[in-house]
Amino acid sequence: MDTSETSSKETKRAKRGPSKKIWTLPFLAFCGVAFLLLAYLCQSAQLVRIQYEVLAKRQEIKQLQGVRADLELSVQELTSLERVEHYAVNQLKMVAPDERRVIEVVWSKAPQPKSSNQVAVVTE
After folding, report:
1. Rounded to an integer, what distance in angstroms lies between the CA atom of residue 5 and that of residue 16?
2. 83 in any annotated domain
3. How far apart are CA 51 and CA 44, in angstroms?
4. Contact at 8 Å (CB) between 108 and 122?
5. Residue 46 within a domain
6. Does the reported pTM lie above 0.70?
7. What are the φ/ψ torsions at residue 66 (nearest 5 degrees)?
8. How do residues 38-65 score in pLDDT, each as one tens digit?
9. Containing domain of residue 93, as a range?
C-alpha cells in the first residue's frame, strides 16, 4: 500500500508541478501588459486634465485682456483734454485766457570747474 500511495502522490505532484510552470509565464506577461495599459490610461487621463487647465487659463487670459482694454479706454476717456476742458469750464467756472504767453526754458549743461575754488557759469 505504501508503494501505491507514494506512486499516486508522485503522479499528482508530477501533474501539478509542470502545470504551475506553464501558467506562471503567461500570468506574469498578462500582469505586465495590464500594468502597462493601466499606466498608459493614467498618463492619458492626466494629459487630458492638464489640457483642460491650459484651456481654462487661456480663456481667463482673454477675459483679463478684455478687462484691461476696457480700463485703458476709460483712462483715455477720463484724461482727454476735451473732457478736462469741459469740466474746468462748466464745473469749476474757469474761463479761457484772452492771450497766451509762453516762456521757454533751455537747459544746458555747465562745464565742470577745473579746481574746487572755481564756480561754473553758463552764459548765452
Report:
1. 16
2. yes
3. 11
4. yes
5. no
6. no
7. -65, -45
8. 999 999 999 999 999 999 999 999 999 9
9. 64-97
